[in-house]
Every structure is written in C-alpha cells, then in structure tokens.
Amino acid sequence: MGDWIISIDIGTSNVCALIGKVNKYSQIEIAGRGTAPCSGLKKGVIVDIDSTAASIRKAVGEAESDANMRIDSAYVNIHGMHVNVVNNKSWMSINGREITRDDLDDILRDVRDIDKPEDRQLIDVIPRQFIIDGYDEITDPVGMVGTRLEVDADMLVGKITSVQNIIKSMERAEVKLDGIVAEAFAAAEICLTPDERDIGAVLLDVGGSITDISVFQGKRLVFYDSIPVGGDHITNDIAIGLRISGAEAEKIKRQFELALTSLIKNDQEISVLDINENKKKNVKVSEVVEIIEARVYEIFSLCKSLLDKAGISIPQEGGVVMTGAGISYVDGCKQLAQEVFELPVRVIQAGQIPGVLKPEFVASAGMIKYVATVKKGGSRASEIKLKKQEKAKSRGSLFGNILNFLKKMF
Ligand SMILES: Nc1ncnc2c1ncn2[C@@H]1O[C@H](COP(=O)(O)OP(=O)(O)OP(=O)(O)O)[C@@H](O)[C@H]1O
Ligand SMILES: [Mg+2]
Q: How many domains is the chain built from?
C-alpha cells in the first residue's frame, strides 16, 4: 500500500472510510472514499458488532472500488467518552554517551507505567517531546549525547469494553487494525491552526448522537470529553414537536438547514403528515427552526457548562471551532455558539479541505493527517512499531503484535 493510510470513522450515523496520504506539501491526497449507514451504535457505543462490522465492510468496499486498491488494514477512531488522555513524564540517566534506540524503547516502556482504573486499558503512547539536559522540544534524540534524557508523553487510555468492541468489529469485518486514534487528535490535526492549538481553542465535533468537546492549549490537549447529544436529537425533537415521523423530520431538517429564526427569509407554510391523526397539516418554517434553535442552544450550553466545571477558560484570541455533520450544514449555529461561549467561532467548511468534500469525512481525513504527521512522522512510538516490523517476518505478525498489545495492555 506504500504511503497510503486507511482511516475508518465508526459513527452512530455512518461509517466513513478514506484511503489517503499527506504529500510533500503537507496536503492531504485522497484516493478513495466510502460511506455506509451504521445502526450498530447507540449513543456512540457499539452495541451490535455484526451490524457495525457489516457497515465497516461496506464503507471499506466502496473506498476500495473508488481507489481501485485493496485494503488490508486501517486506523479507527474512538470518541472522548471512551478514552482519557493522561500526560506522564519519565527520565533516565545517559551518563554522557550517545542515546540509542534501545534507550528510547526503555524510556517509553517506563512512561507507560501509570495508574489506571480496572476497567481501562492503555491504547497508545504518544511521545510529545524529549528533553536532554533541559533542552526541550526534541523529537528524535537518537545519536545525541547527554547526561539525562526525559520524555513527556500522552497516554491514550480507553474503556476496555469500548476498545474490545472496536477490535471485534474490525476483526469481524476482516480489516486488520493499525491503531486506534482519539477523535480529538484526528479532528484537531485538520481543524485547528497551530496558533489556535497554542493560544487555546475549543473544538466541538457534533455528530449524530455524540458531541466531542476538546480543548487545546499550549499545543496540548488539556480537556477531552463527550456528551451523548448530537444531530439526531434535533431530528427527534422535530418529530416529537410536530408529531411527524423521524424520516420526515430528518428530511425537513435537511431541507431548511437553519438554526436561527432571525435568519428565516420566507416564513412559508409546509405540509407534513401528522402521525397521530394520520392526516396532512400545515406548519410554518419558523416552528421547525425554533425547535432546531432550542436543541442547538442546549448542545452548546451543555458543552459550555462542562468546560466551566473543569475551570477551562479560553482567551478571546483563541475561540471555538466546530465540525461534524450534525452542525456543519446548519446555518445560524455559528451565531448561537458565539452567544453561548462569548468567543469567536469558526465552522469548518469541508469543501475547503482538499479531497474531503463533505463534513462526514472530516474525522477520517484528520486521522490520515494525524497518522502521517504524528505516528509515522516524528513520533518515537512509530519507531517502536517499525522496530517490531523489522523483527516480524510478515505483515501478519506485525498486526499480531499490535493487536496483542491492544488486547492485553490492561
Ligand atoms: N444536510 C444536513 N443538514 C442537517 N443535518 C445533517 C445533514 N446531513 C447530515 N446531518 C446530520 O448529521 C448527523 C450525523 O453526523 P456525523 O456523520 O458527523 O455523525 P457520526 O460521526 O456518524 O455520529 P457520531 O459521531 O455521533 O457517532 C445526523 O444527525 C444527521 O441528521
Ligand atoms: Mg462522528
């Protein structure tokens, strides 16, 4: 597969698969894309492995035909409600000699040693910087000389059941697992500028039934959580509020794509089918938009109170960045978010990201960028994998190592 990276975003609404790479100009190139509706998840949790696996197979099959390539293995995402990112540091004495790859293996083994609850397992170790005798921001210390080597790493720790269900769904779909990526890292890679990640920014990813909230500051992820509310709740509210079917509510939502009554240009009447009385009736556009507005406002308010509770404050030079199909299509979300967060707000326009085209693909595209820059680039975690790869006789045994790591590291 050469440099190609395959990413699979397992979502409550859709599974999205992309085959892509990052070129020498740091731009994403997409060779193939595939989507499949997914009904194997409830509130962001895999509850039906067979059905999730079938959606993975379908999305992957579509991406394969699109790219005219065969997919062997892929990276998948995991939401904030299933993972924590724990920062840890470790150090070792070097005694003035050259730092070797074995030293890195040792220090990265040490840094993994964190306390975690019984229901959690380690998913990944992401070294962010190495420090030699006080000199920081070193990405590759091999060959350097020093007396003290330190590592500053992010540990991705996931709920065992969630991680195992992802592994099982991939196994059943017969797609090998390259790794599990926290959705926040993937989305941030493509949605946030380096300045935003440094000054401070809130990233909201509003999907079908989950909203991921992450905060980056000082180039690090400092907050990561999810709320079990998303675009499908807007549809539900419309269905209940107007007494119409879920399918009709979804259709109307997509027809108007509006979350602010003040933006309505023509408050016309539309005809809908009342499911209680089984007869047509007229409702005004403003009735629909009022329902959307209330739910979107509530989603933002819930996110804001989570941040307030955690004592997070974002400077005005930073702001809020929004992505996810649950919100990206809907006009007026930006104004509502500005009102709730009292910060500048930016909505990611998927069309402006080369090859991405639709908001549904932003998370998978982010995974490709993340893997290309963090995992395959400067990160020493990838060195561990490469070392294992050299030792392993076949691709199968490399996969076996990673899979065993994920299966056993808890
Ligand atoms: N044109 C549109 N207008 C308004 N909402 C839309 C539109 N297209 C899709 N949506 C909404 O986007 C939501 C799905 O978003 P997305 O594809 O990002 O979710 P997901 O990743 O599958 O789910 P999750 O991340 O919650 O597990 C659904 O609620 C759907 O109704
Ligand atoms: Mg999603």
A: 2
